[in-house]
Write a structure and sequence with these properties.
Blueprint: E1 9-11, E2 33-35, E3 72-74, E4 80-82, E5 88-90, E6 93-98, E7 103-108, E8 124-130, E9 135-142, E10 146-150, E11 156-161, E12 165-166, E13 168-171, E14 176-179, H1 187-190, E15 198-205, E16 211-218, E17 225-230, E18 235-241, E19 251-255, E20 261-266, E21 270-271, E22 274-275, E23 284-288, E24 293-304, E25 310-315, E26 320-324, E27 329-331, E28 341-349, E29 352-359, E30 362-366, E31 372-373, E32 384-389, E33 394-400, E34 407-414
Antiparallel strand pairs: 1-2, 3-4, 4-5, 6-7, 7-8, 8-9, 10-11, 11-13, 12-15, 13-14, 15-16, 16-17, 17-18, 19-20, 20-23, 21-22, 23-24, 24-25, 25-26, 26-27, 28-29, 28-32, 29-30, 30-31, 32-33, 33-34
Length: 420
């Protein structure tokens, strides 16, 4: 069996030039997007998704600009100096990334920590805090053995080993390290009551930086736990024991770019030394980061709309349901008189998005809070919409304003990924 795995995808979407007397709504413009697919092309979505201009309501990453006090640069000779005074702080700095609260991530061959003096000469990553008088090294890691990862909002950082594991999370705002243990406690507190031996891997930050997720394996559990941490409140939201969901093997997951949900499934196995892709029958599970819980049935297809309002779920029997993120409500055929859901659509207008499901006997509109609405068909000439269907395909469609009749021109069509 030959398995091809994409490590990077560059995709360009273009809309053909509009003919005279025809106009495409500017909101339907789609820009070039470059993204990466994870090791098993989980559900085929890009970690950097195609960008729909002017839309997408996922909370913006609060990446703060460097503080005014962070006045340090690296000269061509590798000297790290203070701007204005030219005071030399250290030498042999190869890279310098300014962060918040006076912190920098740097790459050097001269690490500051005394216990690593024997390893000078190799490349090191360090997280340091610089002020007028002192330099404090918060984290340090040989580049050959891992990296220092910064959260999207620059509030947290951690040392990631080459095998993807980590032990703690450092708060740049507090200058405090937290232990990835039972209570997400400061390390000096957790050391007094050490937990069972555990390993923590596959750490991921949500796009808005509010949540941290990871897999926890311990000696007293048969399968890993999926852990969700609220970084703003410094607490564990929940731990899902994956064995309860028949996910007893290694799993893989990806955080959705539009909403704080995760797509989780069993990871591919190695049989007789040959790589085996995950079978198409291996289901996905949807996990809501705000509750830390799995929701809905095991899925053949999952789709989160670009408004971040809902995730559509097509189960193993080909039945569709819709999970509303804000309302924490799962819409099924029972909510529509037993009529089967065929598609779910997000319509865009100037006042924002609204939503509709098409059924066996008609259609029904709904809001992100679960309330039902009536769809105003007269406004469709000024809209574009995205539609998800039972077969797993997604299309972005623009309505064209023609002098004689309304027309519909597909702008973007996303086919489901088949894994063989």
């Amino acid at each position: 069996m030959n398995i091809l795995t994409a490590s990077q995808v560059a995709t360009t979407y273009e809309v053909t030039q509009v003919k005279p007397q025809m106009a495409v709504v500017p909101l339907a413009e789609v820009q070039q997007s470059v993204g990466e697919i994870d090791s098993h092309a989980i559900n085929g979505f890009l970690t950097t998704p195609p960008v729909v201009v002017g839309q997408g309501r996922h909370p913006e990453t609060s990446r703060a600009p460097p503080d005014a006090n962070q006045r340090h640069i690296v000269l061509e000779n590798g000297d790290l100096v203070e701007v204005g005074t030219s005071r030399r702080i250290r030498g042999d700095v190869q890279e310098l990334v300014p962060l918040t609260n006076g912190y920098y991530k740097l790459k050097t061959k001269l690490p500051r920590k005394a216990d690593v003096i024997t390893r000078i000469g190799a490349d090191w990553y360090e997280l340091v805090k610089l002020d007028a008088e002192t330099e404090i090294v918060a984290l340090s890691m040989p580049a050959a053995e891992g990296d220092i990862v910064i959260s999207p909002d620059q509030r947290f950082a951690y040392v990631r080993r080459a095998d993807g594991t980590a032990d703690g999370m450092f708060s740049l705002a507090e200058g405090q390290e937290y232990f990835l243990g039972p209570d997400f406690s400061p390390i000096q507190v957790a050391e007094g009551n050490p937990p069972q031996p555990s390993s923590y891997s596959n750490l991921q930050f949500s796009r808005d930086g509010k949540y941290l997720t990871y897999l926890e394996k311990s000696s007293d559990l048969f399968s890993p736990q999926f852990v969700t941490v609220d970084l703003q409140q410094k607490r564990i939201v929940d731990k899902e024991n994956l064995a309860a969901w028949d996910l007893v093997m290694d799993v893989e997951y990806a955080l959705n770019p539009f909403a704080n949900v995760a797509f989780v499934r069993r990871k591919g196995l190695l049989l007789h030394g040959q790589g085996r892709a995950v079978e198409p029958s291996d289901p996905f599970m949807l996990l809501d980061l705000e509750t830390g819980k799995f929701v809905g049935p095991r899925a053949k297809h999952l789709h989160t709309d670009s408004a971040g309002a809902y995730t559509a779920i097509v189960d193993q029997n080909g039945e569709m349901s819709v999970y509303l993120h804000k309302a924490k409500q799962l819409l099924t055929s029972d909510d529509f008189g037993g009529q089967r859901i065929h598609t779910v659509v997000t319509y865009w207008q100037e006042t924002g998005p609204f939503f509709e499901v098409t059924l066996e006997g008609g259609s029904a509109g709904f809001r992100d809070d679960g309330r039902r609405t009536v769809l105003d068909r007269r406004s469709l000439g000024s809209l574009y919409y995205e539609e998800f269907r039972l077969d797993g395909t997604v299309s972005l469609v623009s309505h064209l304003a023609l002098p004689t009749r309304p027309g519909i021109e597909p702008v973007l069509l996303v086919e489901p990924v088949e894994v063989n």
